[in-house]
Fold:
Amino acid sequence: MKQLERCVLKACTALVLLVVGTTAIAAGSNDVSSLNLRRGATEISGQVYDLHMLMFSICVGIAVVVFGVMFVSMYLHRKSRGAKPANFHENVKVEIAWTVIPFLILIFMAVPAAKTLIAMEDTTEADLTVLVTGSQWKWHYKYMDREVEYYSLLATQREQINNRYNKGENYLLEVDRPLVIPTGQKVRFLITSDDVIHSWWVPDFAVKKDANPGFINEAWTKVDEPGIYRGQCAELCGKDHGFMPVVVIAKEPADYEAWVSEQESIQRQAREEEQRLLAMSMSKEELMSEGERVYNAACAACHMPNGEGLPGVFPALKGSVLATQNDPTAHIEIVLNGKTGTAMQAFGKMLSLKEIAAVVTYERNAWGNNTGQLIQPKDVNAVATGQ
Amino acid sequence: MSKATDIVSPDHAAADHDDHHDHHIPKGLMRWVLTTNHKDIGTLYLWFAFIMFLTGGAMAMVIRAELFQPGLQIVDPNFFNQMTTVHGLIMVFGAVMPAFTGLANWLVPMMIGAPDMALPRMNNWSFWILPFAFSILLASLFLEGGGPAFGWTFYAPLSTTYSGDSTALFVFSVHIMGISSIMGAINVIVTIFNMRAPGMTWMKMPLFVWTWLITAFLLIAVMPVLAGAVTMVLTDKFFGTSFFDAAGGGDPVMFQHIFWFFGHPEVYIMILPAFGIISQIVPTFARKPLFGYASMVYATASIALLSFIVWAHHMFTTGMPVAAEMFFMFATMLISVPTGVKVFNWVATMWRGSMTFEIPMMFALAFIVLFTIGGLSGLMLAITPVDFQYHDTYFVVAHFHYVLVTGAVFSIMAAVYYWLPKWTGRMFDITLAKWHFWCSLISVNLLFFPMHFVGLAGMPRRIPDYALQFADFNKWISIGGFAFGLSQLIFLWVMIKACRKQGEPVSSQVWEGAEGLEWEIPSPAPYHSFETPPVVK
Structure:
């Protein structure tokens, strides 16, 4: 039994060392946030952090007391130390005490939690509203009072994910077009989804809200400091759930205003350009190179870069009837409007006429699908407008 | 508990008949296929659970190997999602639940002085449909497109419109698991209600029997809800209904309400029997009666009742009204009161006892400490505003693995070591068992403790690849994972040795402080015990 005693003591020491050790490893690294919740960038996220630390301290306190009594008992009341067992098996006073005291601690915890919760859910009196729409596997942002909307996709190269290039500093946490919001203003987010459930999460704002298809959720933030804030999709949403980051840039209101006006004029010009393109024809090289770019950004996640898809999950385009039959109308239509009841999305609102023309041309000529057909923006426009 | 052991006439009659019955034990494979004996069926359940534990564990090894470092190395994301999904399903429905049912089969009749379970043929059936359920589930992994990849929680519409065709097999196998669980639960309830020995009144029943009785009621209440949820998924996917599709008037969040109305009581289905086991083991090795027997029973019942009104704490981010969020926050916090009472009672049982630290007690003590850590992180998760930060991160993964692995699984290991000598009549290999305990204890903490850190730092769960700041901890977590997986091979070794009847013969009481009807019959427990009921004063 002496041996067992020593074992138990060693176990306790080992456990303590393990906890202290892992803590030390974490604290030793430069990034303090690799160990604990971040305080974040808003008043709410600060409150949430304080609540977290309060709950954590209470839990540690409870653990120390309970385990303390247990370990003292394990040390003192051992048979090998000659302990004789007592025979008590109930004590009404003690039992009432350890029912009532935890209850009081809970009330102490519940009051500040309820206060913060009410503040977090108050989305009234917002200065501006952004509609956030998730889809497999990207985010779409639409400024409700302005003529600006765009998709935001993972910007990390496939080669980094496949370990062929070195991984960058913001590996998996970088996007092509971040959301931009002004500092010091209450920004309301309307959050929804086009397909499965996603969850829009920015830890520094303490905002995590599910994007439910067919329903709209609300959340809000008010960022104090300009900066870049990164998050991720937090609800399993299919194959590339891990590759769907959120990046938000907070700018001073004047900078934000300049940015949003610039975006409005860029997007207006793009629409005009699109109309002009209808009269023109693009060359095969131009269509194929643009098509490959668009394919890799928008299509390759499911249909795979080699066009073979994932058998039983996502259909192949290589050699498929749709991409090789003479009449391209059905092909253009499915890219534009998607296919209900499947994961195929409607890309009509994500891609320009030129991009759709290019990607359809690419799909009809790449990987041995040598139809030789060129699809021009005006062909896509004809299908889109039902001509 | 102690009162239950004042036995007037131990079951000499049954002991006299043992030889007579022993040579009726059928031999060979058909013994196991056709058996209606609660001990045989208990053994089948326990071995099946162990095989599933190793299978689900192998999937966890795939997950941890992929997460060993950033980038995609070993599996593609679609297969990774299948691994997390099937790992969860197998561990919940294939390992933990059948293991507890196996323990109930072995122990409940012996603890209440009954000759067998009340419905022996149904008992055979409820076990033998399980291998089919899991064969179907595992076979789906080899279909074109792979098995279920939508998480064990199978949220719609990912599991309906956006899932592969193997969803039909998933639904069918969950139905079979549910039928098995319901039949097992009916058997436990009927046995406990009707077959207690004379004098074995309700408040003399051992706590393992009490906790299993309450668990059985939970099972009967919620397994049909799960069956309903999977059926709605099936019809949404294949028969054009729109239960969870807003375009047809349905609601994807409704799926989560239905699922978690099953899912939260399910959590307690997997931990209440563990409470019972610990309440049997601690008094034995503290040589002191369980402190607060009555309050243990009432606490178990309160936890079971409360488990029906807290389900939406899994759904705080789905966009509920503030009032609903508050209700579910307060109700969830309330559960910590009866759970705390249990922990305090165990500690009070040890207090001024005369403790020794045999293997079952070591697992029980590890359970109390580590389950409490999981319980405390659960209390943190109940706080809605901070749950917004914790939700769907590795903090949650750490929490539920602390309560399910160092909680439920450790309690099962404690139970197996505690009653194994009674089952085989011989002491298991103590040296190996010590190795098993220490290797498991250290590796399981290396595996799950740092998950708290990466979760708080912002790593979402169910991702095959992660940002660089999580790399260091994930490496340690994976090393802990591999070590914990390997440690279970020691357990396998101990079990094989025990089943081959190696080791010193033991007395009928086995452990010095053990009390209860099961310790009154010889070791190994005869094939038929308590054919004439004992009388309990």
The mean pLDDT of chain B is 93. Chain B touches chain A through 112 residues (CB under 8 Å). The CA atoms of residues 252 and 382 of chain B lie 23 Å apart.
